[in-house]
Design a protein that fits this description.
alpha+beta; 6-stranded mixed beta barrel; two-stranded antiparallel sheet
Amino acid sequence: MEWMRILISRCAALFRRQKLDDELDEEVGSHIDFAIEENLKHGMTEQQACTAALRTFGGVTQIKETYRVKRGVPFLEQLGRDLRFSLRQLRRSPGFALTAILTLALGIGAVTSVFSVVDAVLLKPFAFREPGRLVVMREVEEELSRQMSAVPDNYRHYLRLKKDSKTIEDAAIFSQAGSSVSLTGDHPRIVGAILTSPSLFRTLGVQPMLGRDFVEGDAQKGAPHVVVITFGAWQTFFGGDPKAVGEDLGIDGNPATVIGVLPPAMLLPRIAIAPKIASGPPLETMVYEPRTPSDWDLRNDTGNFNYRVIARLKGGVTLAQAIAELETLQRAYTLSAHLPMHLGISLTPLAADVTAGISGALWLMFAAVVGVLLIAWREPRQSATSARRNSGARNSCSCRPGRKQEPTGDGAPGREPCAGHRWWRCRSGCCLCRCPASYGACTGQRSAFD
């Protein structure tokens, strides 16, 4: 437990700093005084004896700083000095300090707000398993390629591609709509609803936190009407009751049994029906229902392009490989089925599809608010620098506020004793600092940095 003893000793030194500094000054002074006396006995003048003693002893500042680092917690000590200096500046110029604080607060608040949006939308948009393998699949009609780069999916084509593809691990087809939802039949609430194939949550890599996922039998004709609800719907309609699974929920006036509750991180992004086509005003998605395909869905080959598809690529499969395979399947089917159109495929990474058209604007907005923050941070520093320059100080001064500067004693230019008194120049030579009284007779004056 040696580290514990050292930690306690260092923390205790923070409250005995003045006493320890006085003891250190006394000890260093005694060593230098002894060396000066020895030099005087060898016939040196007082000036020569002092200079030689300091040069022999070494850097006083370095020795003291090494001791202070080993005895305390430098980060906390420096933080305390900076806070005390800030409070002194606040008392000296309260109006300027308040303006600077408010400007920085607004800048930090703006950066935080915009970064939270950037982080949620661009950096970590989805809480899905391996979201980099998820793609949005759309079809391409070459006859319409000049008007639309891609069109929504046909249900029959989706089933064929999912069955024949070797690069797709799983896929789900769905549509987004609004539904009237209520618990008792009174005061229904209009919320977003997803009508999906049973494979949606498996494709996304999400498991319900309560209950179960959809199975293929839930989408068969005549199957009981079941729903999976979001975490928000669970809190809104059931108050977070764990017994909600198995209860009935009114969906568009018809009862549906709740079979599962999704985790709070499961938020399905709103995917456009096709590129550059708006999806209408967003509704908070609260319920997921299994979609039972109609006879029209299963038979129609040349129409019914009304669905969205999310697919998961197999591990190690690149986007280009998947596109090449699906393009081949689409062209082969166009010829074998004698379709009056030429079909292709479009695959877009899910993250890129959701942020299409807004990613550039978000990054530009983030850069703008960061620039505002830098301006807000630089303005007070420029004012402080101007004040120091007007007072005659150099910009290169290495003295920190409220900190004594002492000679290093190494004989470097600008660090020798000033002629006629016991003052020493700081490292940059921009200010004079009083040496300890033990070095000899001081002038009794104090510098601005004492």
